[in-house]
Amino acid sequence: MSVLVGKSAPSFTAKAVQGAQIIEDFSLDQYLGEKYVVFFFYPKDFTFVCPTELHRFQEEIAEFEKRNVAVVGCSTDSEFSHFAWLQQPRNKGGIQDVSYPLVADINKTIANDYDVLAGEYVEDEYGDLVVEGEMVAYRGLFLIDKDGIVRHQVVNDMPLGRSINECLRVIDALQHFEEHGEVCPMDWQKGEDAMTATHEGVSGYLAK
């Protein structure tokens, strides 16, 4: 598994769906210099755990917007699958109320570049290409700053849903550090004391 933290987020241009609109040339580059990005992968449309995550991102979309964060989802499904799922009501298993973009990574290149692709191509004993595993994405999440640098990543196995609260907490910690130059200890929450680092180490807790 690659660690992308501290590196430029892999760039891509792909089809995406937002509401009832299919976007032909979607890229995270549009947010450079303007917004932070939470870019998350999920395994499949029309499944069970995935809609719980997509709906939770939507339910907290105002919190992300307050923090100047764009939320973007991605799976290896096609734009047509995304579109159909977005038109289906929530009470029938759909994600009709989701307003943020969903990227279609049908060629698996984006998931591969972010190193969250579960399957891979290998050669069998006859030299033929075969697939090991399933060619879908793990539950990867990447926090990208306004300069396009990955500042946080987490990757869950497919049965394990993520935490929106932890995602927002890490965003708050990053933005606190950027604004105040103070580092945030374990389990730090917005509004709590932070710490200042010196060449001799951490000098201690500061006043709020």
From TrEMBL:
The keyword Repeat does not apply. SUPFAM superfamilies: Thioredoxin-like (SSF52833). One of its GO terms (cellular component) is cytosol. It is found in: Cytoplasm. It comes from the Bacteria. The active site is at residue 50. Keywords: Cytoplasm, Disulfide bond, Oxidoreductase, Peroxidase, Redox-active center. Signal peptide: none annotated. One of its GO terms (biological process) is cell redox homeostasis. It holds the Pfam family 1-cysPrx_C. PROSITE patterns: THIOREDOXIN_2. GO terms for molecular function: thioredoxin peroxidase activity. Its main location: cytoplasm. Transmembrane segments: none annotated. Thiol-specific peroxidase that catalyzes the reduction of hydrogen peroxide and organic hydroperoxides to water and alcohols, respectively. Plays a role in cell protection against oxidative stress by detoxifying peroxides. This is Thioredoxin peroxidase.
